[in-house]
Amino acid sequence: MKLTFYAHSCFAVEIKGKRILFDPFITGNPAAQGIDVNSIGADFVFLSHGHGDHVADAAGIAKRTGALCVGNPEVMGWLERQGVTNTIHMNHGGPVSHDFSFGKVRGVNAVHSSSLPDGSYGGNPLGFVFNTEEGDFYFAGDTALTLDMQLIPLWAKLQFAVLPVGGHFTMDATDALKASEFIKCDTIVGVHHGTFGIIKIDTQKAEDDFKAAGKKLLLPAPLETISF
């Protein structure tokens, strides 16, 4: 299983030769300069919520690649109004019944807001728990620290988790460390930091704090790939 980070909260996970893309925000992203959005491939696109810094390039990539898009009904409806036809509507609850080639996925709680770029209601934000033959992982989406994270180990033995660490709009690195305890995962990929001044963090301190707790915080650079 490989994770390629693009910028902000956009990354892709490759499982069994399939590429799962999350929250594509390349166009207009100051942290993604030099990345050609048209070079990004996808078999699946998962969207955690409707904010522009998570869905900006979703429709374009979906229409170019034919990827299956997955997210809450409001976000999927917004994509469909832009001509995207290959979608699955999901929400919080048990694993989606669709026969994904990579395994199973469950929608879980994320404490945040959600509106779409056109100003319409974006539905409930989501996190995603993946169970695959190559390992389990969790993408929290944009969220505050929440006690609901203690449920995650009921559904998955996580190989890694992708958590926001930038603070202000989401958890900061300190809360992400506590979240790693809740979800029983020692390897965390930190996202949603540094893109804008308001979410810049002391990366060295964050890494040191995780190390002191016997855990690993990975803060990949744009286009960096991590193997698990």
UniProtKB/TrEMBL annotation:
Keyword list, A-Z: Hydrolase
UniProt KW Lipid metabolism keyword: no
Domain Metallo-beta-lactamase residue range list: 7-192
Top-rank lineage group of the source organism: Bacteria
Annotated Pfam families: Lactamase_B_3
Keyword Amino-acid biosynthesis attached: no
Molecular function as annotated in GO: hydrolase activity
PANTHER family (alphabetical): UPF0173 METAL-DEPENDENT HYDROLASE MJ1163 (PTHR43546:SF3), UPF0173 METAL-DEPENDENT HYDROLASE MJ1163-RELATED (PTHR43546)
Protein name: Metal-dependent hydrolase
